[in-house]
Amino acid sequence: MSKDKSAGQRLEEKLLSKSDTLGVKDAALLEQSKGFCEEYKLFLNNKTEREVVEYTIPILKKHKYKEFQLGKKYAAGDKLYFNNRGKALIMATVGRRPPADGLRIGVSHIDSPRLDLKPNPLFEDSDMAYLKTHYYGGIKKYQWTAIPLSLHGVVVLNNGKTVKVNIGESEGDPVFCVTDLLPHLAQNQMKKTASEVVEGEQLNILVGCWPYNDEKVGAKVKLNIMNLLFEKYGITEKDFLSAEITAVPAFRPADIGLDRSMVGAYGQDDSVCAYASLMAELDSTEPEFTTVTVFADKEEIGSDGNTGMRSLFFRDFLEDFLSAYGLQARHVLQKSVCLSCDVNAAVDPAFGDVFERNNCSYLNRGPVVSKYTGSRGKYSTNDASAETMGFLRRILDDADIQWQVGELGKVDIGGGGTIASDISVHNLDTVDVGVPVLSMHSPLEIVSKADVYLLYKAVLAFYNSKLSK
Ligand code: MN
Ligand code: MN
C-alpha cells in the first residue's frame, strides 16, 4: 500500500507525529472497550473512598490477595494488600526479579469532590428541615443545586459501634437536594459572579417538611427527621459529631451518546484511573518487577491527613514490606518507577479558548501522558525527566498502545496539581498518566470508553514490562 503514497506522504508519516481518534485504525478496540466498561460502571456505584475500599477487598481476596503480614518474605507471584483505615489501600504482586531491582508503582485517588455534612448539620427554617454542608474539594457550587443527591457515610456511636449510612442509591430510596432560586426572582443573583451565585452557606440539603405530631414541641420538622434517623440508624443529634456523612450526586453511571461511546458518572476523577489500575494489578500475575498499586484518599483537598499521599503510610508500608528482604525503602525507590494515574482536562470546543490545541488532550485519543501539571511557571509540579518520559514511551509504543500528550490548559489560564509531586518527594521517578475528562469535578463527568480501556492496557503494559530503567 505504501507504494501508492507520495514521497511527501511517506516523509510525513516518518517525521511528523499525528494522533487519530481511536477506532479508525482498530475498530475492534471500540467493542472491547464497551465490554470493559460494563464492570467499570458497577465500580462507579462506589462513590466514596470508604465504599471503594470495601468493594475492592473482596475482589482482591477472590484473586488470592492476602492481607500484608509484617516480617514475611514474599515469593514471586505472591499477592498482598494493606488496608489503611478503610480509606486507602495498597495492593502488590511480587515480581520475578527481587524487590531490590525496583518496583513498578501505580497510584490513583479514590476520593472525589462532594458536600460533607458539618458536625452540627441539622436545622429547621420556615417549617423545612435541612442539613448544613461544607464542600470538599474544588467544586463550582452552582452545579450542586437542583440535582438529586444521595447520602453516604458512617456514624460512630457513643458505644463505639459504627453505623453505615447509604440513602438515595437503592431503588425506591428517597433522594435529597440543594434548592435554587427561580429565574423570576433571580435578577440580583444572575448579576453575581459564578463563585457567588450560590454561596457555601446556601449549600443546605433539604431533608423534610412534615412535623412531629406534638403541639408542645418547638422544631417539629427537625425532631421528626431526627426521629426517623434514630429509628433507622439509632443515631441522635450529637452523633453527627463523630460521623463522616457526605452528599454526592444520586445519578447512576450511564452510557452517554447514541453510539454509547462514553460513560457519564459522578466521581470518575479519579475512579476511572483507580479502576483501570486495579484491573491491571489483578491481571499482572507474573510481573518481572514487583507491582504496587495504591488507592489514596484526600487528593481533592491537598493529600493531607493520614490516608492521603502526604502521609507516611505509603513509605511505612514499603519499609515494612522491604525489611523482610533486608532492604531499605530509599534504595529500592531510587530504582523504581511510578505512574501517577489521574485524569486530565479534555479539549472542550464549547470552552475552546482555555486550551492550547497542540498540547492539550482530546477525548478518545488514548491515555494522556503529562510531563508536568502545576500552574504558572511550573509551580507545584513533578516535572518528569526526559528519561522517565522516554522509559514510559518505549513501553507504550512497544505494546502498540495509542497515547497522547496533555497539558492542563493554556499556560496563563490556571492550572492544578496531582499527587505526582507528593510521590516524587520519595526520590521516585514519577510521571502523570490518565484519562481525558469533560466536565471535570462536575456532578456528571464524561470519559470515552476507549480511553478507559487503553489506560488499563497502558498500566498493564507498564506492570508487565521487562524493561529496566
Ligand atoms: Mn484527580
Ligand atoms: Mn480532582
Describe the overall structure.
This protein has 469 residues and is of the alpha/beta class. The protein folds into 2 domains: 18-112 and 266-464, 3-Layer(aba) Sandwich (Aminopeptidase), CATH 3.40.630.10; 114-249, Aminopeptidase i, Domain 2 (Roll), CATH 2.30.250.10. Helices cover 26% and strands 24% of the residues. It contains 11 helices and 23 strands. The strands form 5 sheets. It has a 9-stranded mixed beta sheet with strand order 1-2-3-14-4-15-21-17-19, with helices on both faces. A 7-stranded antiparallel beta sheet has the order 8-7-11-5-6-10-9, covered by helices on one side. A 3-stranded antiparallel beta sheet has the order 12-13-23. A hairpin with a 2-residue loop joins strand 5 (114-125) and strand 6 (128-136). The mean pLDDT is 96. One manganese (II) ion binds at residues 269, 300, 441. The site of one manganese (II) ion (MN) has 6 residues, from helix 6.
Structural class: alpha/beta
CATH topology of the largest domain: Aminopeptidase
SS field, number of helical segments: 11
* Strands, total number: 23
Distance between the termini: 37 Å
Helical coverage, percent range: 25-40%
Catalogue the ligands.
manganese (II) ion
CATH level 4 superfamily of the largest domain: Zn peptidases
List keywords for this structure.
Aminopeptidase, alpha/beta, 2 domains, 24% strand, binds manganese (II) ion, 9-stranded mixed sheet, Aminopeptidase i, Domain 2, 11 helices, 26% helix, 469 residues, 23 strands
